[in-house]
Amino acid sequence: MSEYIHKSHNVSVLMYHFVCPAKYRRVVIDDEVDQVIRETCEEIEKRYEIKFIEVGTDKDHVHFLIQSVPTYSPQKIIQRVKSIIAKEVFAKCPQVKKKLWGGEFWTDGYYVATVGEHGNEAVISKYVREQGQEKEYKKLYQSALEPKQLSLWDYM
Question: What's the CATH architecture for 5-117?
Answer without folding.
Answer: 2-Layer Sandwich (3.30)
